[in-house]
Amino acid sequence: MGRLARVMRIIQPVVLVALPVIMMLWAWLKLADAALVTSVCACAALVPFFVGFEKSRRRARNLMPIVVLTALAVAGRLVFAPVPAIKPIIAIVVMGGLCFGREEGFMVGALAMLVSNVFFGQGPWTPWQMFSMGLVGYLAGVLGNRGRLTQRWSVATFGALMALLYGFILDTWTIVGFVSNANATSVFATYAAGLANNVASAIGTVVFLIPIANTWPRIFKRIKVRYQI
Amino acid sequence: MSEYVVEMRGYAFSYGSTGEDVLHDITFGLENGSFAVLCGTSGSGKSTLLRALKPELAVAGTSRGTVRVLGNDPYHLSSVESATRIGFVMQDPENRIVTDTVWHELAFGLESIGMDTQTMHRRVAETAHFFGIGSWFDRKTTDLSGGQKQLLNLAAIVVMQPAVLVLDEPTSQLDPIAAKGFFDVLERVNAELGITVLITEHRLEDVLPFADRVLFLGRDGTLAYNGNCDGFVRMLKKDDDGLYAALPAATRMSMLLERAGKGTGDRASYPVTVREGRSYLTSALTTISAQGGLGAEPHPAERTLPPSDVVLRAKDVWFRYDRKMPFVLRGVDFDLCAGRVAALVGGNGSGKSTLLLALAGIRRPDRGRIIKARNLHVALMTQNPKALFTRDRLVDDLLEWSDLGGYSLSNTNDMLERFGLEQLRMRHPYDLSGGETQKAALAKILLLGPDVLLLDEPTKGLDATAKAQVGAILTDLTLREDKAVLLTSHDLEFVSEVAHTCSMLFGHEITCTQDAHSFFLDNLFYSTPTARIARGILDGCVTTADLAASLGLG
Amino acid sequence: MAKGLFATYHPAVCMLFFLAAIGFSFSTQHPVYVVLSCVMSSAYLVYLRGWRPFLRTMGTCVPLVVFVGLLNSLFNAAGATILWQWGPFCVCVEGLCYGVAMGGMLTAVLLWFACYNEVMTEDKFTYLFGRRLPTVSLMVTMISRWTPRMVSRGRNIHDSQEALIGGYDQSRRGMLHRGVRMATVLVGLGMEDAIQTADSMSARGYGSATRTSYARFRWHARERVVLGVFCALIAASATLLATDAGAFTFYPLVSPVEPSWGYATYALMLGMPFWVELERLRIPWYSSSHGKQPLTRASVHGYE
Ligand SMILES: Nc1ncnc2c1ncn2[C@@H]1O[C@H](COP(=O)(O)OP(=O)(O)OP(=O)(O)O)[C@@H](O)[C@H]1O
Ligand SMILES: Nc1ncnc2c1ncn2[C@@H]1O[C@H](COP(=O)(O)OP(=O)(O)OP(=O)(O)O)[C@@H](O)[C@H]1O
Ligand SMILES: [Mg+2]
Ligand SMILES: [Mg+2]
Q1: Whole-number pLDDT of residue A97
Q2: Residue B488 pLDDT
Q3: What is the pLDDT of residue B554?
């Protein structure tokens, strides 16, 4: 692994914290051009992850789990497109992070949003969705590395929390980017409008996670041993 | 540097997980520009041997002995050298395609080794031209037919200009015509570009005419034969190791005549192609009539079957996968009778699998009906048998539906034994060789004991012995237990031996349904090689057994 | 292939245009600039896709635009001209104006993204990022190959188990169980297949050297000219827009709209997809790089 990749790996957690902070600060100080600046920041926040991943020069066999899980997540989003809010995507990203590590988790989340938006429409939300979904995978990877989250229910709870976190970040971005002079009422109104969606998404994630939380790690473990991933 | 392009000395290999040696003491060398065929029964270790030539493909395991490719140990080659010297074409074309467009797939290898754009364009253009890919250069890889996919795989390897080309059952999923096309291109690659070819195949019919070298892996994993075709046939004559049935029809015919003492002695080598077979047969018949005619009276086999009930009927079935897509089936009528093995043949993408899905009730026809006798259990084995397995051990997997199908562990063990899989019962289903997977899937279905069996390409990847075994099981099921079987296959010889009736799917409809014998007699191209050899010389022969019968040698 | 000459331009030019269009649209709520951006993006989208798809796209934008517009106008007490107040709700003229401008801005951005989706096809995107991020862009390519495969694989697995045991157990629970089983087989098999693909990649030298790209896009002289003009327009618009936007405020009172050269340069900048079509007139010096060839990208492989 190159030096650049190591540097990026150190920067990554910093960025994960810094981006939301910058976003909040911008809103707090009521600075101008919030929509543009926050979008640019979100794009910039993706850089250390993508560059770090790129420079880590993984073998082809180590790339494939990411490709498969991402494709599965995109396919899931497509298949469940007619159903509002309930999507398997967070469940898959969480499993990816848990079983393959934080960078892999981030890539699954970020790429899943990037590619699926080819079908659902790219928009100013794309970098934010990539970032937040990547964050979900990253956090799952952090806990997975520590050997936490082995129980079915703890995984499901974690998934539900992540679904709420994902919704929270995107709602916050709506406020910061598109509401001028945000006050308690408009903030509240935005979160309230997103609440039903986020709760449904959390429930959906739990429903998807429960049956796979035990079986998928077993499958992945065999693959890892057999093919030396 | 040695004179050999590929060389193995005392090579042995064992898989890490099982510990037993799969390959023992393999020693051979291939000269530059040779075309070698590696054959052997299923599970004898062909794929394992080929993989040893390409470190990137090796599975965890321990090996002994030396391997040399172009005089170097493949494990010491840099990956660029490895990529440009040894090309590997594998079984499942679908999984080997990396990118989403044809042009990108062709360029992929060259991009990976960092070739400059100028040279890359020239190479890709040249190769596309050589393979006749120009007209579908911009297509999506998902839209290609099976034959095109495998051709693309080959082209994407040849574009790297390797010195050695290794192929592992490249045509097992292709229809007979596409397979022929593939071998023709392969022959051109060997003859015109001088690339050394090493290939494994279960059906030797199409590949043996091109081969100047045969390697035969015995069941125990040793190299039982290494030499030219003729010697191989001569050796098989002495020691019939289940491979006899895999030989080309012309060769089998000549062996048959020779055994009966009626061969034409003036020949230096055995006939391999249909043309050689025809001239052999003609001169053999002349000799026979000169000697005073056939020894015994010819006794053509009895072919009338008692009439039986229709259990599954497709009536004017129209089907398409999507409103925006053209119809795959248009007005298909089909009857499946109890106590019969029916076969469905047709090219890649003609809609065989689709018809089976419709018959099994999985896809509803857009127009027309599927009529099923009541309380009949229909089971379909789809084309990819791996999709059936979920458990970590074969035996657990076969037991998965024991409560649904009402069978027990002892039934399962019997079934494993019937298919010769008892040693593999603790193996993970995905770790089986190609042929073993197919047999395991069939075992799983037979355990459920359905009344109607729809089998989508049950013989792909099976060796001749296993094929005969499957054929016997199917015949047994239909004749003894009065079950109905419908199978699709690209192996016309198998169909001619096993099926009672045969239908051809072409142009979105069933063009004809006949009893298998007359079906192959009436066809000219889509027929067995024996029928093509005997046509006009000794009428009414479709299989080697027919031939034996009409020559009075049975 | 999207309609028009602009879509045949080098991906870097197209990308720069969309970055500029989206960036500028995002950065100002000055009403004239917002209207200009809306008009230009609508015109281009209609040109690319026709009226009906345009209206459909507008339809999908409506909820978000209305939501943001309402948020901005309903809870905003910063304006001087208060129309109506009740508890937390406070509606003022300035807030309403701001809400409309914000909605317009969002509409413009969404429309530009819709145009982007038409023009920046995946191969252009991967081409652009392929040099800097070869692995990631290769992965994007593979994902788009694997996504439809996953869907049809899922169907296959579903079919093959329904075909065997579907008849035995039709209960809800049985179906749920089979759904879970399908998901399990799908990942297991998908991983197994993926390893084969990975092997096929390494067998063809993946990871052995720095990847190059089978570039299918070339720079033409006319693209350099167009790029130069466009950069000049960006610079001009940026300066003029900064001045105009700085002079304009919504609160406490909406300032009057002054005439400015900025509107013209901005419209010209956003109108690039249209004015590149002038090439069809074959201004002699302009199309000289093309000689007598017809003005399509037939010269570039694969885009006949
Ligand atoms: N990953 C593995 N772990 C353990 N054993 C294996 C593995 N892969 C294959 N085997 C075993 O090694 C033997 C040789 O397998 P191989 O795939 O080389 O056979 P093959 O000659 O190619 O058969 P087929 O004609 O069916 O493809 C078989 O008995 C098989 O069960
Ligand atoms: N799930 C699907 N969705 C859309 N189109 C499909 C699907 N499956 C098959 N097709 C199309 O339907 C046609 C018939 O396919 P089918 O698989 O039935 O052919 P086949 O005769 O079984 O071919 P093969 O010998 O290669 O197995 C093909 O053109 C194929 O591209
Ligand atoms: Mg094999
Ligand atoms: Mg088929």
Answers
A1: 94
A2: 93
A3: 58
Say whether domain A59-226 belongs to CATH 3.90.1210.10.
no
The helix/strand/coil state of B67 is: strand
Provide the b/e sequence for B142-180 (b: ≥16 CB within 10 Å): eebbbbbbbbbbbbbbbbbbbbbbbbbbbbbbbbbebbb
Phi/psi for B125 (5° steps) reads: -60, -45
CB contact under 8 A, A223 and C192: yes
pLDDT digits (tens, 9 = 90+) for A67-117: 999 999 999 999 998 888 888 999 999 999 999 999 999 999 999 999 999
Say how far residue C67 (Cα) sits from the centre of its chain. Answer: 21
**Ligand 1 binding pocket, CB closer than 6 Å:** B 15, 17-18, 22, 40, 42-48, 59, 431-436, 461
Reference A93, options A64, A113, A119, A69; nearest CA is: A69
Ligand at minimal distance from the CA of B43 is 1
In chain B, which residues have their Cβ closer than 8 Å to the Cβ of C145? Answer: 97-100, 141-142
User: Does any CB of chain B come closer than 8 Å to the CB of residue A226?
Assistant: yes
pTM over 0.80: yes
Residue scoring higher pLDDT (A18 or C253): A18
Among B22, B26, B53, which is best to mutate for testing ligand 1, by the most ligand atoms less than 8 A from CB? B22
Q: Which residues of C touch B113 (CB under 8 A)?
A: 205, 208-209
Instruction: Name residue A33's beta-bridge partners.
Output: none
Distance from CA of C222 to the nearest CA of B (A): 22
pLDDT tens per residue across span B494-517:
999 999 999 999 888 899 888 888
Chain B residues lying within 8 Å of A218, measured CB to CB:
392
The β-bridge partners of B14 are B21, B62
User: Which residue in the block uniquely carries the two structure tokens 């009403």?
Assistant: C31
CA distance B465 to B39: 13
DSSP states of C267-283: HHHHTHHHHGGGGGG--
Which H helix or E strand runs over C86?
Answer: strand C82-86
Which ligand 1 atom is at minimum distance from the Cα of B169?
27
Mean pLDDT calculated for residue range B401-422: 88
- Tell me whether the omega of the peptide bond preceding residue B529 falls within 30 degrees of 0, making it cis: no
Residues 52-91 of C with CB under 8 A from A: 60, 67-68, 71-72, 74-78, 88-89
Q: Could you tell me the domains of chain B? A: 4-99+161-240 (3.40.50.300), 248-295+532-554 (no CATH), 310-531 (3.40.50.300)
Do the Cβ atoms of B357 and C193 come within 8 Å?
Answer: no
pLDDT digits (tens, 9 = 90+) for A118-135: 888 888 889 999 999 999
Task: Assess contact for B202 and B27: CB atoms under 8 A.
Answer: no
Contact: C200, B116; criterion CB under 8 Å: no
- pLDDT over threshold 90, residue B27: yes
What residue spans define the domains of chain A? 59-226
Residues of chain C short of pLDDT 70, as ranges, are: 1, 76-80, 88, 167, 169, 282-304
Which chain B positions have a beta carbon within 8 Å of A228's beta carbon?
Answer: 60
CA angle B438, A76, A161 (to 5 degrees): 125
Atom of ligand 2 minimally distant from the CA of B356: 18
CA B493 from centroid of its chain's CA atoms: 11
SS3 B373: coil
pLDDT on residue A91:
95
Asked whether the beta carbons of residue B60 and residue A228 sit closer than 8 angstroms, the reply is yes
Sketch the domain layout of chain C as residue ranges. Answer: 6-126+215-299, 132-203
Per-residue pLDDT of C89-101, as tens digits, reads 777 888 888 888 8
Q: What is the pLDDT of residues B147-163, one digit of tens each?
A: 888 889 999 999 999 99
pLDDT digits (tens, 9 = 90+) for B436-489: 898 999 999 999 888 899 999 898 888 888 888 899 999 988 988 889 999 999
